C-alpha cells in the first residue's frame, strides 16, 4: 500500500503515523534504540506490505497488467488502491478526507529519528497536498510519472494512463474487496502489539 493507506491504517489501529511512514525507509532489523511507537509502526508497515503483496486481489491486478507494466505492477496497484481509498474515503473513516489529512499533517512533526528523505517527503506532502491529490485519476498519473524519476533508467510508468483507464473498474472492484480484509488484519495485529 502507499502513503494514504499506511496513514489511515495507523490511525484506525492507534499506532504511530510517523512509524507508518518510517517503514518506507527502515531496512533490516528494526533499530531497538528507536522509541517503541516507531518500532511498532515499522513492523506494522512491513506486515501490511507482506499481506498486501500476497493477497490474491492485489496479486491478481499485478498479473493482469500487460508487459512492460507488469514489472512495475506492485507500484501501480498500490497507487491505484490509494486512489480508490481516497475516492471511497467515507466508507472507511468518520472524518472527511480533508480533515483527516489536516490532522495527520499536524501530527507529523520531524524529529531526530527521521531520515532526511522522510523529512523531505512529509514536507512535500504538506506543501503539495499530496494525499488529497490521490482522489483524482490525474493525480495518480502524475505521481507515477514522478516515481519514474527515482529509477536510474526510464520506466513505462509515465505511459500507463491508457492501461489504467482500461483496467480502472477492475482495480476498483479489487480494492473494494481487498481493503476491508486488510483493515481486519491490521486491527488483529494491533491487538497483538497492545497485549
In short:
The chain is an all-alpha fold. The protein contains eleven helices and no strands.
What does this structure look like?
The protein is globular. With 195 residues, it is mainly alpha-helical. The chain is 68% helix and 0% strand. The model has no long low-confidence stretch (mean pLDDT 95). Helix 5 packs across helix 11 (168-194). It has helices at residues 3-12, 17-22, 36-54, 56-64, 73-87, 97-107, 116-128, 130-133, 137-148, 161-166, 168-194. It contains 11 helices and no strands.
Helix-strand blueprint:
Elements: H1 3-12, H2 17-22, H3 36-54, H4 56-64, H5 73-87, H6 97-107, H7 116-128, H8 130-133, H9 137-148, H10 161-166, H11 168-194
Helix pairs in contact: 3-11, 4-5, 4-11, 5-9, 5-11
Amino acid at each position: 500500500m502507499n502513503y494514504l493507506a499506511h496513514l489511515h491504517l495507523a490511525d484506525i489501529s492507534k499506532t504511530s503515523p510517523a512509524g507508518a511512514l518510517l517503514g518506507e525507509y527502515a531496512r533490516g532489523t528494526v533499530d531497538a534504540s528507536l522509541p517503541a511507537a516507531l518500532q511498532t509502526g515499522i513492523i506494522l508497515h512491513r506486515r501490511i506490505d507482506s499481506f498486501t503483496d500476497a493477497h490474491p486481489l492485489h496479486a491478481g491486478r499485478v498479473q493482469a497488467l500487460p508487459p512492460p507494466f507488469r514489472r512495475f505492477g506492485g507500484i501501480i496497484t498500490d497507487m491505484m488502491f490509494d486512489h480508490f481509498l481516497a475516492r471511497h474515503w467515507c466508507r472507511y473513516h468518520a472524518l472527511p478526507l480533508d480533515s483527516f489529512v489536516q490532522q495527520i499533517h499536524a501530527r507529523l512533526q520531524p524529529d531526530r529519528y527521521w531520515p532526511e528523505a522522510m523529512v523531505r517527503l512529509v514536507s512535500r506532502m504538506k506543501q503539495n497536498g499530496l494525499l488529497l491529490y490521490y482522489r483524482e485519476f490525474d493525480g495518480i498519473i502524475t505521481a507515477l510519472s514522478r516515481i519514474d524519476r527515482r529509477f536510474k533508467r526510464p520506466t513505462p510508468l509515465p505511459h500507463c494512463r491508457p492501461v489504467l483507464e482500461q483496467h480502472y473498474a477492475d482495480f476498483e472492484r479489487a480494492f473494494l474487496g481487498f481493503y476491508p480484509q486488510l483493515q481486519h488484519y491490521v486491527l488483529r495485529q494491533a491487538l497483538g502489539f497492545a497485549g
